[in-house]
Design brief:
The protein is an alpha+beta fold. It contains six helices and nine strands. Strands 1, 2, 3, 4, 5, 8 and 9 form a seven-stranded antiparallel beta sheet that branches. Strands 6-7 form a two-stranded antiparallel ribbon. Strand 1 and strand 2 form a beta hairpin. It is flat and about 85 Å long.
């Protein structure tokens, strides 16, 4: 009889007790997710915004310069390049990518940029730099850079800003550059006649879901992206 008493003392929780404990645990986890879930999302979105903000500087520099070789033979001025990039940024072939890549300090490419370093060994700042870069999808050096990317990849849709009854606003023509005070005049391919010293535009930064070059040249479709991570109003001068 004493042995039976000891066994009964060592028995576990009843089924009812286990169900109650499990219910309490579920309530606690649900409350935790309700409190910290939105906060985690906000932090992630904020970090994406900060990264896109830093990349804005890279885009501003790129839009105001002509690179050696291919670009200097294609465009007559940096403003002509800016017109073309803005007007074609909504098209697949003209998609503009912004990213950081490992740059090999020992080799300079034909366009004046450092060569991409696929090898991840070495010391950053000594053997290679983490370099911001902006290239279009049709750039022959883009694939090299994708093999050496650090961090996330963004792409940018750019649309001219024009003056209307409500002040400065985004143009309805997403593939053209017009007189900002008279949208009836198109200067997309006639940069020399553009009446203003600066073209103003809105840049929408979108985060690419993968760093794969095969995705960028295959399944990627810029029209499917409608919610930018960040927006910035920018300008390019003559």
């Amino acid at each position: 009889m004493k042995l039976a008493s000891k066994k009964s003392l060592k028995s576990g929780f009843t089924l009812a007790e286990s169900v109650i404990a499990l219910g309490i645990l579920v309530v606690l986890i649900t409350g935790f997710l309700a409190v910290f879930g939105p906060a985690t999302t906000a932090i992630r979105n904020t970090l994406s915004g900060e990264e896109a903000s830093r990349m804005q500087s890279a885009l501003e520099v790129e839009m105001s310069q002509l690179r050696e070789g291919r670009e200097k033979s294609q465009y007559g001025s940096s403003l002509e390049k800016a017109f073309d990039w803005i007007a074609r940024s909504h098209q697949l072939g003209g998609s503009v990518f912004v990213y950081h890549y490992r740059a090999d300090l020992a080799e300079v490419r034909s366009d004046g940029s450092y060569a991409a370093r696929e090898d991840v060994s070495g010391v950053a700042g000594q053997d290679f730099l983490i370099q911001p870069m902006v290239r279009r999808l049709d750039d022959p050096l883009l694939q090299e850079d994708f093999d050496a990317i650090e961090g996330r990849v963004f792409f940018v849709k750019m649309t001219q800003l024009v003056f209307g009854a409500q002040g400065l606003s985004v143009s309805e023509d997403i593939e053209g550059i017009a007189d900002p005070h008279n949208e009836g005049d198109d200067f997309t391919t006639n940069v020399s006649e553009y009446p203003e010293a600066t073209v103003l535009f809105e840049a929408q930064f979108f985060r690419l879901p993968t760093r794969s070059y095969n995705y960028a040249t295959g399944a990627f479709d810029p029209t499917e992206f409608t919610r930018p991570v960040f927006r910035r109003n920018m300008g390019v001068s003559r």
